[in-house]
Specification:
With 669 residues, the chain is α/β, with parallel strands linked by helices. It has five domains: 78 residues; 108 residues, OB fold (Dihydrolipoamide Acetyltransferase, E2P); 208 residues, no CATH class; 47 residues; 142 residues, no CATH class. Helix content is 51%, strand content 17%. It has 22 helices and 23 strands. Helix 2 packs parallel to helix 13. The longest helix has 28 residues. The radius of gyration is 29 Å and the shape is globular. The relative contact order is 0.07. The mean pLDDT is 84.
Length: 669
C-alpha cells in the first residue's frame, strides 16, 4: 500500500493541494473557525474507530489538517511581503548578493529591514530590485553590507500577453514585489557590518573561489562556464552560451543539483574505498559533510540544497540500516523544503529536478536490466543512455510547457558532454582545494581550462546541427500534468511487467487527448483581437480560428507572439506595418490599424476597434468620434507621455486602453 510504503506521499499531497488553493482563495477568520471545528470534531470522532483495522475518520481529519496547513503557510508567506507606497521613501536594507553588472547599471537585490519616516521607523519585509546607475562605489559592495537608501518603489507587473511567463508571480515567490531606479545620491549610507549571515558568507566564499580560478589563468568565456558548471554562478554567462546548452539538451549541467551531488558522492566514495563494513557509517558521514561543504561554497542556492538534502535523506536510511523507500526519502526532502518555503513548489527548478529524480528511482533499474553488456565501456554508455532517457521522459512535459522547445539530440549530447562535465566538476573542486600548492593547482587549472574548452566546443557543435531543437511547441498547465501522469503510467506498465491495468494509462492518455481537442475546438470556433505589449514596437494580432493575422513594424516574430502561437498551435500570417492604415474585418467587426487619424478615415471605415500605432500617433485636432463609438487601443510603441488630444470629442461609450500602462489588450469577438 502506498500510504504505508510512501507515507510522505500521503502527507505531502494534501499539503501541496492546500498551497495551490492559496492561489485562488484567501481564508478569512470565519473559514478558519469552521475548518478548526470540523478538524477537531474529526479527531475526537476518530477515537471511536481506533479498534478497527483502518480509521478513515482519522485519515480524513489528518488530510484536511494538512490541506489547511498548506493554505495557511502559503497565505502567510504572501502576506509577509510588505505593501509599499509609490513615493520616495527612506529604507534601511541588506545587500543579498553581489551587484550584477550590466551595460549602464548594476542590479542590486536588497532585503528591506525598516522604513524611515522622519523620526519614526517601522519594520518592513520582502526584497526590492535596485537598478543602480554605474559608479565605482557600487562595484565594491559585497553580500551582507547594510545600506540606507532613498528610492521610489514601483510594483512589478506583467505585460499581460496571452500565454506569457508570469514574471510577477515568479518574483513574488522570490520575496520580491517592487523595483526602483537609483543613483549614487540615493545611497545615503553604506555600512560594513561586524557579522554577516551564513548565506552571505557562502556567497563571499563562492566569489573567492572564482577569483582563484582567475588567478590560475582561467578567463573570459571559459571562466564564466567554469563558474556556472562548478558553482552554479550563471550571471557571467553570455546569452549565446546559454542558448547553445539549451539547444544541446545539457543545460542541466549548469544547474548545481542532483548531477553534481551524485558525481561528488561517487568520487568521495571511491576515495574512501578502504572504509568498509564497520567503517561504512563513517564513510557516509564524511561524504555527507563534504556535500554540505560543497553546498556552502556554491552559495547555498535552492537547487544544490535540494540535491544535498535528497542525498542526505537517502544515505540516512542506509546508516540506520532500514530498507527506506527511495521515493519516500526524496519526498521527505521535498516536504521539509516546502515547509520552509511553500512557494518552492512553483519553481521550475524544483519541479524539473524532483520529476527527473522520481522517474530515475522508479524506472532506472528495470530499464537498465533490459540489455546486458559484458564490455565495461559499452555498459557505461548504456547506463548513461538509460539515465538520460528516463530523466528526459520525466521532464518532457515540463520542458515543453516552460521552454516551448525540445532538444532532439539530447541522448548524443549527454553521452559525450556529461562524462566530460563530470571530470570538469571534480577538477573544479580540486583547484581551490590545492590552490596553495602552486605547481599542482596550475596543472589542475590547465586541465580544467582544456576540459571547459572541449565542453564548450562539443556543445556548440551539437547546438549547430540541423534540427537540433524542435521549437515553437507548447502546452497548457493541465496538459502538462496529464501528460506527466500518462508517461509515468505507461512506463510503469511496460517496465514493471504489467503490474497495473492498461486501462489506467489509457484513461489518462484519453483525458490528455480530449483536453488538447477541447483547446483546439475552442481556438477554431473563436476569434480575438490582440494588441501585444511589446515595448518599443507595435504588434497586433487578429486571431481567426487557428490563424493569427499578425501586423507588426518588424519582420521578426517577437518572443511573446512565438510563445502564444506555440501554446495554442496557431499559424502566423505576417504583414509589416508601414506608414498607412489597415482595415481588417472579423466576425462582422471592423478593426482599423493606423498611425494617423482624421475625420475622413473614421467616416470611411466606421471601426469597432481603433488601434493607434507608432511612438506618437498623429490625430487630427477637433476630431469628433461621438458618432462612431469604438474601443480605442494605443499600442505599446507609443511613448509614455502620449495622450489623446483634448480637442477630440469622445462619448461615454468609448474605451481607451493604453497598452504600455494597462497591459496587452485581448478581446474575444
Amino acid at each position: 500500500m502506498l500510504h504505508k510504503e510512501i507515507p510522505f506521499l500521503r502527507i505531502g499531497l494534501p499539503l501541496c493541494l492546500g498551497i495551490i488553493s492559496g492561489l485562488y482563495f484567501k481564508p478569512d477568520i470565519t473559514f478558519l473557525v469552521i475548518a478548526c471545528i470540523i478538524i477537531i470534531s474529526g479527531y475526537v470522532l476518530s477515537l471511536f474507530f481506533n479498534k478497527y483495522q483502518t480509521n478513515q475518520v482519522f485519515g480524513f481529519a489528518l488530510t484536511l489538517s494538512l490541506f489547511i496547513c498548506g493554505l495557511l503557510l502559503y497565505t502567510n508567506e504572501k502576506n509577509s511581503i510588505s505593501t509599499l507606497n509609490p513615493e520616495k521613501t527612506l529604507f534601511t536594507c541588506t545587500l543579498s548578493d553581489y551587484p550584477e553588472e550590466k551595460v549602464n547599471s548594476f542590479i542590486l537585490k536588497v532585503k528591506l529591514n525598516r522604513k524611515v519616516e522622519g523620526k519614526k521607523s517601522e519594520a518592513v519585509k520582502g526584497s526590492i530590485i535596485l537598478y543602480q546607475k554605474k559608479d565605482s562605489s557600487t562595484a565594491s559592495m559585497i553580500p551582507g553590507d547594510l545600506l540606507i537608501i532613498r528610492c521610489l518603489p514601483v510594483e512589478i507587473v506583467n505585460r499581460s500577453n496571452p500565454c506569457e511567463f508570469d514574471y510577477r508571480f515568479f518574483m513574488e515567490n522570490q520575496g520580491i514585489r517592487y523595483y526602483a531606479f537609483t543613483n549614487s545620491h540615493d545611497i545615503i549610507r553604506h555600512i560594513i557590518p561586524v557579522h554577516r549571515k551564513l548565506i552571505h558568507r557562502a556567497l563571499i566564499v563562492r566569489e573567492t573561489i572564482i577569483r582563484m580560478f582567475k588567478e590560475r589563468g582561467i578567463k573570459g568565456e571559459r571562466l564564466a562556464l567554469v563558474a556556472a558548471i562548478t558553482l552554479g554562478q550563471k550571471s557571467m554567462l553570455d546569452p549565446e552560451q546559454k542558448l547553445n546548452f539549451i539547444k544541446a539538451g545539457v543545460m542541466h549541467i549548469m544547474a548545481v543539483s542532483g548531477l553534481h551531488a551524485v558525481i561528488l558522492s561517487l568520487f568521495v566514495f571511491s576515495l574512501l574505498f578502504f572504509m568498509k563494513r564497520r567503517f561504512n557509517i563513517l564513510r557516509i558521514i564524511i561524504t555527507i559533510l563534504i556535500l554540505w561543504s560543497f553546498a556552502f561554497v556554491t552559495g547555498l542556492t535552492p537547487s544544490v540544497l535540494r540535491a544535498t538534502l535528497m542525498f542526505s535523506f537517502l544515505q540516512a536510511g542506509k546508516m540506520m540500516k532500514r530498507p527506506a523507500n527511495g521515493i519516500n526519502s526524496i519526498l521527505a526532502s521535498a516536504f521539509f523544503l516546502i515547509i520552509i518555503r511553500p512557494s518552492v513548489i512553483f519553481d521550475a527548478g524544483f519541479l524539473l529536478s524532483y520529476s527527473a529524480v522520481v522517474f530515475i528511482i522508479c524506472f532506472y533499474k528495470d530499464f537498465y536490466l533490459i540489455l546486458h553488456f559484458k564490455n565495461w565501456l559499452t555498459d557505461k554508455i548504456w547506463q548513461s543512455v538509460v539515465v538520460t532517457l528516463i530523466a528526459q521522459a520525466g521532464t518532457l512535459p515540463l520542458t515543453i510547457m516552460l521552454f516551448n522547445r525540445f532538444p532532439t539530440y539530447f541522448i548524443l549530447a549527454n553521452i559525450t558532454i556529461v562524462p566530460i562535465s563530470n571530470l570538469l566538476i571534480i577538477n573544479g573542486c580540486l583547484v581551490p582545494m590545492f590552490f596553495r600548492i602552486r605547481f599542482l593547482s596550475h596543472f589542475l587549472a590547465l586541465l580544467l581550462n582544456y576540459l571547459t574548452g572541449l565542453t564548450e566546443s562539443l556543445t556548440s557543435r551539437a547546438a549547430s546541427l540541423p534540427y537540433s531543437t524542435i521549437e515553437n511547441i507548447g502546452s497548457t498547465t493541465i496538459e502538462c500534468i496529464l501528460l506527466t501522469v500518462t508517461i509515468f503510467l505507461f512506463v510503469h506498465f511496460f517496465l514493471k511487467k504489467k503490474s497495473i491495468p492498461v486501462s489506467y494509462p489509457v484513461f489518462f492518455l484519453t483525458l490528455y487527448i480530449l483536453t488538447g481537442t477541447a483547446r483546439d475546438i475552442s481556438s477554431k470556433t473563436t476569434n480575438e483581437v490582440i494588441v501585444y505589449n511589446t515595448p518599443g514596437s507595435s504588434t497586433i494580432g487578429i486571431r481567426t480560428g487557428k490563424t493569427l493575422n499578425l501586423f507588426s513594424d518588424t519582420s521578426l516574430v517577437v518572443p511573446e507572439v512565438k510563445r502564444h502561437c506555440a501554446t495554442l498551435g496557431l499559424e502566423i500570417k505576417s504583414t509589416i506595418l508601414n506608414n498607412k492604415y489597415y482595415c481588417f474585418r472579423a466576425q462582422g467587426k471592423k478593426i482599423l490599424i493606423t498611425n494617423f487619424l482624421n475625420k475622413k478615415i473614421v467616416q470611411n471605415f466606421v471601426p469597432d476597434f481603433l488601434i493607434l500605432t507608432g511612438p506618437r500617433p498623429d490625430i487630427e485636432n477637433d476630431l469628433d468620434l461621438r458618432r462612431f463609438p469604438c474601443t480605442i487601443i494605443i499600442s505599446s510603441e507609443a511613448t509614455s507621455g502620449f495622450r489623446i488630444p483634448r480637442q477630440v470629442a469622445l462619448t461615454s461609450n468609448d474605451t481607451i486602453h493604453f497598452v504600455r500602462k494597462s497591459g496587452a489588450f485581448v478581446k474575444t469577438i
